[in-house]
UniProtKB/TrEMBL annotation:
This is Chain length regulator (Capsular polysaccharide biosynthesis). It comes from the Bacteria. Belongs to the CpsC/CapA family. The lineage of its organism: Bacteria, Bacillati, Bacillota, Bacilli, Bacillales. Keywords: Cell membrane, Membrane, Transmembrane, Transmembrane helix. Residues 3-93 form the Polysaccharide chain length determinant N-terminal domain.
Amino acid sequence: MEETISLRELFETLRKRLWLIVLITALATVVSGVVSYFLLTPIYQASTQILVNQAKSEQQMYNVGEIQTNLQLINTYSVIIKSPTILEKVKGELQLDQTLDELNEQIQVSSEKDSQVFSVTVQDPDPAMAAKIANKTAEVFKNEIVKIMNIDNVTILSKAEVKEDQTPVKPKPLLNMAIAFVVGLMTGVGLAFLLEYLDNTIKTEADVEKHLGLPVLGSISVMSPSTAKTTRTGLSMQRARGETVGR
Protein backbone atom coordinates (compact mmCIF):
# COMPACT_ATOMS: atom_id res chain seq x y z
CA MET A 1 0.00 0.00 0.00
CA GLU A 2 1.50 3.29 -1.07
CA GLU A 3 1.85 6.01 1.52
CA THR A 4 0.62 9.45 0.63
CA ILE A 5 1.56 12.68 2.37
CA SER A 6 -1.12 15.30 2.72
CA LEU A 7 -0.55 19.03 2.57
CA ARG A 8 -1.53 19.22 6.20
CA GLU A 9 1.22 16.78 7.15
CA LEU A 10 3.76 18.85 5.22
CA PHE A 11 2.82 22.00 7.09
CA GLU A 12 2.83 20.08 10.36
CA THR A 13 6.38 18.91 9.66
CA LEU A 14 7.51 22.45 8.87
CA ARG A 15 5.82 23.77 12.02
CA LYS A 16 7.40 21.08 14.19
CA ARG A 17 10.91 21.72 12.81
CA LEU A 18 10.53 25.47 12.40
CA TRP A 19 13.24 26.18 14.97
CA LEU A 20 15.72 24.10 12.98
CA ILE A 21 14.86 25.82 9.69
CA VAL A 22 15.20 29.28 11.25
CA LEU A 23 18.48 28.33 12.95
CA ILE A 24 20.13 26.99 9.79
CA THR A 25 18.90 29.91 7.65
CA ALA A 26 20.08 32.52 10.16
CA LEU A 27 23.42 30.78 10.66
CA ALA A 28 24.10 30.57 6.91
CA THR A 29 23.19 34.24 6.41
CA VAL A 30 25.31 35.46 9.33
CA VAL A 31 28.35 33.40 8.31
CA SER A 32 28.08 34.69 4.74
CA GLY A 33 27.89 38.27 5.98
CA VAL A 34 30.89 37.87 8.29
CA VAL A 35 32.99 36.26 5.55
CA SER A 36 31.98 38.86 2.94
CA TYR A 37 32.50 41.91 5.15
CA PHE A 38 35.50 40.90 7.26
CA LEU A 39 37.41 38.01 5.68
CA LEU A 40 37.34 38.48 1.90
CA THR A 41 39.70 41.07 0.39
CA PRO A 42 37.87 43.83 -1.55
CA ILE A 43 38.79 43.88 -5.24
CA TYR A 44 38.64 47.10 -7.27
CA GLN A 45 38.41 47.51 -11.02
CA ALA A 46 39.77 50.04 -13.51
CA SER A 47 39.36 50.18 -17.30
CA THR A 48 40.91 51.94 -20.26
CA GLN A 49 39.61 52.03 -23.84
CA ILE A 50 41.67 51.54 -26.99
CA LEU A 51 40.61 52.39 -30.55
CA VAL A 52 41.87 50.34 -33.48
CA ASN A 53 41.78 52.75 -36.43
CA GLN A 54 44.33 54.06 -38.91
CA ALA A 55 44.80 57.82 -38.63
CA LYS A 56 43.38 59.67 -41.64
CA SER A 57 44.07 63.01 -43.18
CA GLU A 58 41.22 65.23 -44.35
CA GLN A 59 41.70 64.09 -47.96
CA GLN A 60 41.59 60.37 -47.17
CA MET A 61 38.32 58.46 -47.01
CA TYR A 62 37.35 55.48 -44.90
CA ASN A 63 36.41 52.28 -46.66
CA VAL A 64 34.47 49.26 -45.47
CA GLY A 65 37.31 46.84 -46.19
CA GLU A 66 39.72 48.68 -43.92
CA ILE A 67 37.17 48.86 -41.11
CA GLN A 68 36.59 45.12 -41.42
CA THR A 69 40.33 44.55 -41.23
CA ASN A 70 40.50 46.62 -38.05
CA LEU A 71 37.69 44.57 -36.52
CA GLN A 72 39.54 41.36 -37.29
CA LEU A 73 42.74 42.79 -35.83
CA ILE A 74 41.03 43.30 -32.47
CA ASN A 75 41.00 39.53 -31.92
CA THR A 76 44.73 39.44 -32.59
CA TYR A 77 45.39 42.48 -30.42
CA SER A 78 43.42 40.91 -27.54
CA VAL A 79 45.95 38.08 -27.49
CA ILE A 80 49.03 40.27 -27.98
CA ILE A 81 48.11 42.70 -25.19
CA LYS A 82 48.24 39.84 -22.64
CA SER A 83 51.36 38.23 -24.10
CA PRO A 84 54.64 38.00 -22.12
CA THR A 85 56.18 40.58 -24.46
CA ILE A 86 53.78 43.26 -23.21
CA LEU A 87 53.38 42.08 -19.63
CA GLU A 88 57.14 41.86 -19.04
CA LYS A 89 57.50 45.56 -19.82
CA VAL A 90 54.44 46.46 -17.71
CA LYS A 91 55.81 44.51 -14.77
CA GLY A 92 59.28 46.03 -15.12
CA GLU A 93 58.16 49.65 -15.50
CA LEU A 94 55.73 49.44 -12.55
CA GLN A 95 58.09 47.22 -10.51
CA LEU A 96 55.32 44.76 -9.74
CA ASP A 97 55.84 41.81 -7.39
CA GLN A 98 53.37 39.40 -8.99
CA THR A 99 54.36 36.84 -11.60
CA LEU A 100 53.38 37.13 -15.26
CA ASP A 101 50.67 34.50 -14.77
CA GLU A 102 49.19 36.43 -11.86
CA LEU A 103 49.33 39.66 -13.85
CA ASN A 104 47.69 37.93 -16.80
CA GLU A 105 44.80 36.82 -14.57
CA GLN A 106 44.29 40.40 -13.39
CA ILE A 107 43.83 41.73 -16.93
CA GLN A 108 40.70 41.16 -19.00
CA VAL A 109 40.24 42.30 -22.61
CA SER A 110 36.74 42.75 -24.04
CA SER A 111 35.07 44.39 -27.03
CA GLU A 112 31.57 44.97 -28.32
CA LYS A 113 30.46 43.23 -31.49
CA ASP A 114 31.36 45.15 -34.68
CA SER A 115 33.14 47.83 -32.66
CA GLN A 116 36.66 49.10 -33.27
CA VAL A 117 37.02 49.88 -29.57
CA PHE A 118 38.13 47.35 -26.99
CA SER A 119 38.57 47.71 -23.25
CA VAL A 120 41.40 46.67 -20.98
CA THR A 121 40.07 45.99 -17.48
CA VAL A 122 42.27 45.33 -14.46
CA GLN A 123 41.26 44.09 -11.01
CA ASP A 124 43.42 44.64 -7.94
CA PRO A 125 42.99 45.06 -4.16
CA ASP A 126 44.40 48.59 -4.57
CA PRO A 127 42.22 50.83 -6.79
CA ALA A 128 45.17 53.11 -7.61
CA MET A 129 47.30 50.14 -8.68
CA ALA A 130 44.45 48.79 -10.82
CA ALA A 131 44.36 52.10 -12.70
CA LYS A 132 48.16 52.18 -13.07
CA ILE A 133 48.31 48.67 -14.50
CA ALA A 134 45.46 49.38 -16.94
CA ASN A 135 47.03 52.61 -18.20
CA LYS A 136 50.55 51.18 -18.40
CA THR A 137 49.32 48.10 -20.28
CA ALA A 138 47.56 50.28 -22.85
CA GLU A 139 50.61 52.54 -23.18
CA VAL A 140 53.10 49.68 -23.63
CA PHE A 141 50.78 47.95 -26.09
CA LYS A 142 50.42 51.11 -28.19
CA ASN A 143 54.20 51.50 -28.40
CA GLU A 144 55.03 47.85 -28.99
CA ILE A 145 52.34 47.04 -31.56
CA VAL A 146 54.15 49.23 -34.10
CA LYS A 147 57.24 47.02 -33.78
CA ILE A 148 55.29 43.76 -33.69
CA MET A 149 52.77 44.36 -36.49
CA ASN A 150 54.53 47.15 -38.44
CA ILE A 151 51.32 49.15 -38.29
CA ASP A 152 50.35 52.21 -36.29
CA ASN A 153 46.59 52.04 -35.88
CA VAL A 154 46.10 52.13 -32.11
CA THR A 155 44.81 55.13 -30.15
CA ILE A 156 44.13 55.31 -26.42
CA LEU A 157 40.62 56.75 -26.12
CA SER A 158 40.30 57.00 -22.35
CA LYS A 159 42.56 56.36 -19.41
CA ALA A 160 41.64 54.60 -16.20
CA GLU A 161 41.03 56.93 -13.26
CA VAL A 162 40.71 56.44 -9.53
CA LYS A 163 37.37 57.69 -8.24
CA GLU A 164 36.68 58.96 -4.75
CA ASP A 165 34.90 56.43 -2.54
CA GLN A 166 35.26 53.82 -5.25
CA THR A 167 33.13 50.73 -4.64
CA PRO A 168 34.79 47.31 -4.93
CA VAL A 169 33.45 45.00 -7.64
CA LYS A 170 33.72 42.03 -5.31
CA PRO A 171 32.82 40.65 -2.94
CA LYS A 172 29.16 41.70 -2.98
CA PRO A 173 28.02 41.12 0.61
CA LEU A 174 24.30 41.69 0.07
CA LEU A 175 24.20 39.32 -2.90
CA ASN A 176 26.23 36.72 -1.02
CA MET A 177 23.94 36.99 2.00
CA ALA A 178 20.83 36.67 -0.18
CA ILE A 179 22.22 33.53 -1.79
CA ALA A 180 23.20 32.14 1.63
CA PHE A 181 19.68 32.87 2.92
CA VAL A 182 18.06 30.90 0.09
CA VAL A 183 20.55 28.03 0.39
CA GLY A 184 20.16 27.95 4.17
CA LEU A 185 16.38 27.94 3.89
CA MET A 186 16.41 25.09 1.38
CA THR A 187 18.87 23.14 3.52
CA GLY A 188 16.77 23.67 6.64
CA VAL A 189 13.56 22.54 4.94
CA GLY A 190 15.29 19.52 3.43
CA LEU A 191 16.81 18.52 6.76
CA ALA A 192 13.45 18.96 8.49
CA PHE A 193 11.77 16.51 6.11
CA LEU A 194 14.72 14.11 6.36
CA LEU A 195 14.53 14.02 10.15
CA GLU A 196 10.77 13.54 9.97
CA TYR A 197 11.23 10.67 7.54
CA LEU A 198 13.81 8.98 9.78
CA ASP A 199 11.73 9.48 12.94
CA ASN A 200 9.77 6.25 13.45
CA THR A 201 8.87 6.81 17.09
CA ILE A 202 5.18 6.61 18.02
CA LYS A 203 3.93 9.68 19.84
CA THR A 204 0.18 9.85 19.19
CA GLU A 205 -2.79 7.60 18.46
CA ALA A 206 -2.56 8.66 14.83
CA ASP A 207 1.01 7.33 14.68
CA VAL A 208 -0.20 3.90 15.80
CA GLU A 209 -2.68 3.71 12.94
CA LYS A 210 -0.18 5.17 10.47
CA HIS A 211 2.87 3.03 11.25
CA LEU A 212 1.31 -0.20 12.59
CA GLY A 213 -2.00 -0.21 10.76
CA LEU A 214 -3.86 -1.10 13.98
CA PRO A 215 -7.07 0.52 15.24
CA VAL A 216 -6.88 2.48 18.48
CA LEU A 217 -9.25 1.00 21.08
CA GLY A 218 -8.46 3.42 23.85
CA SER A 219 -5.80 5.55 25.45
CA ILE A 220 -4.39 6.06 28.92
CA SER A 221 -3.82 9.66 29.88
CA VAL A 222 -0.82 10.76 31.89
CA MET A 223 -1.89 12.19 35.24
CA SER A 224 -0.08 15.00 36.93
CA PRO A 225 1.16 14.42 40.53
CA SER A 226 -1.47 16.76 41.98
CA THR A 227 -4.28 15.03 40.10
CA ALA A 228 -2.99 11.61 41.12
CA LYS A 229 -2.83 12.69 44.77
CA THR A 230 -6.37 14.04 44.66
CA THR A 231 -7.60 10.84 43.04
CA ARG A 232 -5.88 8.65 45.63
CA THR A 233 -7.36 10.75 48.45
CA GLY A 234 -10.82 10.43 46.95
CA LEU A 235 -10.48 6.66 46.62
CA SER A 236 -9.25 6.36 50.19
CA MET A 237 -12.25 8.31 51.46
CA GLN A 238 -14.61 6.13 49.43
CA ARG A 239 -13.06 2.98 50.87
CA ALA A 240 -13.31 4.42 54.38
CA ARG A 241 -16.99 5.20 53.92
CA GLY A 242 -17.59 1.74 52.51
CA GLU A 243 -15.96 0.11 55.48
CA THR A 244 -18.05 2.22 57.89
CA VAL A 245 -21.28 1.29 56.16
CA GLY A 246 -20.28 -2.34 56.15
CA ARG A 247 -19.94 -2.32 59.91
